[in-house]
Design a protein that fits this description.
It contains 9 helices and 3 strands. The chain has helices at about 20-30, 50-55, 60-70, 75-100, 105-135, 140-145, 190-200, 205-210, 220-235, and strands spanning about 155-160, 165-170, 180. A hairpin with a 5-residue loop joins strand 1 and strand 2. It is elongated, with a radius of gyration of 26 Å.
C-alpha cells in the first residue's frame, strides 16, 4: 500500500486502477519511503515502491531499477520512474474505461444481450432443475384460478436516504424479511438504476452490483433470486 502496509481499502492506502494521470502521479509520489538520501544504496526488499514497479515491469526493467536502487537513486527520481512505467501500462486501459463509464447505456445493452442469450440457453435446464429439487408449484394448475383474485403479499424494494445524504435501498421478501441491502449511492437516480437492473437481470445483476451491495451468504442470495423472479412473474402477469 501507499503507507507500506498491506494494500486495503480499510487502510485507505490503495491506488485506484483507473485514477486520472495527475492523481496517479500524486498517489505514487506519496508512497512512504525511508530517509536514505540520494547516493545512498536503497533496499528493494520490503519497498512498496519497488513492489509496485515489479507488478508492471518486465524482468529487464525490474533488474535495471534494482541496480538503480543499489547505486543510490533518489526517491523522487525512483517514484517518477515507477509512475511513468505504471501509467504507460494503464493509459490505454484508462481511456477505454472512461469511454465505458461515459456511456452506461452501452454497458447495459451489452449486459442485457448477454442475459438474453444466457437465459435462452439455461431456461430448459433450470426448469428441469426446479422440478428435481422440488421448487415447482405444488398445487395443480387448475386450482390456481380459485385464488387468482386474492391479494398476495409480494417481495418489494424500499428506497431511502440516510443522514449522510447518500441514497440506499433494501429488498424484502414477501414476509418482510431483509434479503438485500445496498451501500450508499450519490443520487436517487443511481439507486433507481440499480433496482431496475436487479428487476430485469436478477442473478446476473447481483454479480454486476456486488461491490455496491452488503455481502450476503449463499442461502440469502438464492432466496433473493427466487424473490426477484417472483416479482418479475407478477409484473409480467405470469
Amino acid at each position: 500500500g501507499l503507507d507500506g502496509r498491506k494494500m486495503s481499502k480499510s487502510y485507505d492506502n490503495t491506488i485506484p486502477l483507473f485514477t486520472p494521470r495527475t492523481q496517479l502521479q500524486k498517489l505514487i509520489g506519496g508512497i512512504v519511503t525511508d530517509s536514505r538520501a540520494p547516493g545512498e544504496p536503497k533496499e528493494t526488499e520490503g519497498s512498496a515502491l519497488f513492489q509496485l514497479y515489479q507488478a508492471f515491469a518486465d524482468a529487464d526493467e525490474t533488474a535495471a531499477l534494482r541496480r538503480a536502487f543499489a547505486e543510490g537513486i533518489g526517491w523522487g527520481d525512483a517514484k517518477q520512474v515507477v509512475f511513468e512505467r505504471v501509467d504507460r501500462e494503464i493509459a490505454p486501459l484508462r481511456a477505454h474505461y472512461e469511454a465505458l463509464m461515459a456511456d452506461p447505456a452501452h454497458i447495459e445493452r451489452i449486459l442485457l444481450a448477454g442475459a438474453d442469450k444466457a437465459r435462452a440457453i439455461s431456461r430448459p435446464f433450470i426448469g428441469k432443475l426446479r422440478e428435481a429439487v422440488g421448487l415447482r408449484r405444488l398445487e395443480p394448475a387448475a386450482q390456481t384460478g380459485a385464488v387468482k383474485g386474492a391479494k398476495v403479499a409480494l417481495p418489494s424494494f424500499k428506497q431511502y436516504r440516510e443522514r449522510d445524504g447518500r441514497f440506499h435501498f433494501k429488498f424484502l421478501d414477501a414476509q418482510g424479511r431483509l434479503l438485500l441491502q445496498s451501500l450508499g449511492f450519490e443520487t436517487p437516480q443511481e439507486a433507481g438504476r440499480a433496482i431496475a437492473l436487479l428487476q430485469r437481470q436478477r442473478g446476473e445483476a447481483l454479480n454486476f452490483l456486488a461491490n455496491r451491495l452488503e455481502p450476503a451468504d449463499n442461502e440469502t442470495i438464492r432466496m433473493t433470486i427466487e424473490s426477484l423472479e417472483t416479482l418479475a412473474r407478477t409484473s409480467n402477469g405470469v
